[in-house]
Design a protein that fits this description.
alpha+beta; five-stranded antiparallel beta sheet; globular; 5 strands; Beta-Lactamase
Length: 143
């Protein structure tokens, strides 16, 4: 199994925060997990609320644990709420099924990690994360 490197994780965070600044988003918190769901890197901008880590982590953790992006999880929460509630219970609550949770693939299509972003609304979190992943030369997957 390939894993995201610390260098790649740092590049994703830098690109995500840069996009947030360019777009004028609220202060962001960004979590990067490897393919095994282990924390690789985290940054919280000044002014980002104190529990944004847990939200960003839940977004990334849900994606890497299920193998689907945040938009897919969001769709499932709308269409199959009992399933998502059960999964959240199995994950000890570490599942936030909304935009801003993004799988990270390498150029071959292999999943090497996940990113969770929190601080603005979920759509804006996702926009920043997509830009960050792409700027690091990797391939984002939201569905």
């Amino acid at each position: 199994m390939s894993n995201i490197t610390l260098e790649q994780a740092r590049a994703i965070i830098a690109g995500t925060l840069a996009e947030g600044h360019t777009q004028g988003f609220m202060p962001l918190s960004v979590v990067v997990l490897d393919a095994g769901g282990h924390l690789t890197a985290f940054e919280r901008e000044d002014g980002s609320a104190n529990k944004r880590f847990e939200i960003a982590y839940g977004k990334a953790h849900g994606c890497i644990s299920i193998g689907k992006g945040g938009r897919w999880l969001e769709m499932m929460s709308e269409n199959r709420p009992a399933f998502i509630a059960s999964v959240a219970g199995a994950f000890g609550g570490q599942l936030i099924p909304v935009g801003g949770g993004i799988l990270v693939n390498d150029s071959s299509g292999a999943t090497i990690g996940a990113v969770g972003i929190s601080g603005d609304n979920s759509d804006n979190d996702e926009i920043a994360g997509l830009a960050g992943i792409t700027s690091a030369g990797l391939v984002p997957e939201i569905n």
